[in-house]
Amino acid sequence: MLPKENRIKELLREKGLDGAIVSSPENFHYVTGFAGHQHTVSRQAGFSIAVVSAREDVPTQLTTMDFEVPTFEIKSAGRFIVRKYDTWVGVKTWDEIANGAIVPAPAVMESSSDILAKMVREMDLADKKLGVELDYLPVGYYNNLCGMFPEAKFENISELFVYARSVKTPEEIEMFRTLCRAADEGFTAVSRIARPGVSERELVNEFRRTVIATGVAAPSGWSMFSTGESGSRLTIPGDAVIQRGDVVKFDAGVNAEFDFYTTDTSRAWVMEGADPALYKLKDRLYEAQRRMIAAAKPGLPINELYHIAYDYVKEMFPSYRRGHQGHSISMGPATAEAPYINPTTTRPLEAGMVLAMEVPCYIGGVQGFNIEDMVLITPDGCEVLTPNTPHYL
């Protein structure tokens, strides 16, 4: 994945910031184009850090554990300055192992914080306006930053990254095409076995097997496959078995693993013998979602997209209430992020946005519905990225 470092530098300048300390695994990946292994596994602040200057002529500096520095140097290909901090791993030289050479231990073990302090000062940012991800950083770590750089002025840039990620690069769009194809294969396989007598566990196992077999994605651990009453609440797949007249619902996705990108798609299939009101509701929800997709194009205010779906459902079902009808999606672990398709977001749609357009309705203790597709905004309209999974069986 190509780094988006220049995009972040541009936004930092627009915000009047001199630089940023990038701490979360996903935003480290966004800046550099790759992720640190231990950083991703642990999600601990400080395991890998990128310090970005808003100036174009100042290269970004990275630090990671000594054990991972060679990997960072390969992946950076000379674009970034890579600095190591010392750890307990204790990598040996071949001379030590083969010949018994004695290599003195370092006099001082430099920590991640030690190297961070050097990078920030070398880049002339210690007394400047610096962006940090306050939505990610633990309070204790942030307090340590304030103590390390008492003359710096810190500003939360968590939303800056969400804004940057809301419009995808061509490479990111191809990533979503790949992921959505894998998800689509898994969902279509599920549609072939969804019938009375099949359990929720069988549905999710079929999804997982099919997605893994694609070789390009991993099934999201949060993926929910439900039937009947369990579809009316937030849950994970259990022992419920599809009954005649049930609504079979899934809300699921796949992940790009160490590239962080993720998907979010839903279907609701009404089994034969259901109450006619359920068929009527399903049709209305589906038609509302199709109307959103048909209207989506660059320049359309997002709150208008919301009302296209919401008002259409409410016209037939006056009790319908829903705070949003979808959301942007980019890098996990979260699936939903701004902009949300809600009544207050006036931001216009832009080519390159990828949105999960959804029209759900949950009937407490009875059944649940969600109709959701991944949709790419194109220069002259939009493209459904999950077109193959049927909305009707």
TrEMBL record:
Residues 175-378 form the Peptidase M24 domain. Residues 7-167 form the Creatinase N-terminal domain. It comes from the Bacteria. InterPro entries: Creatin/AminoP/Spt16_N, Creatinase/aminopeptidase-like, Creatinase_N, Pept_M24, Peptidase_M24B. This is Xaa-Pro peptidase family protein. It comes from Allofournierella massiliensis. The lineage of its organism: Bacteria, Bacillati, Bacillota, Clostridia, Eubacteriales.
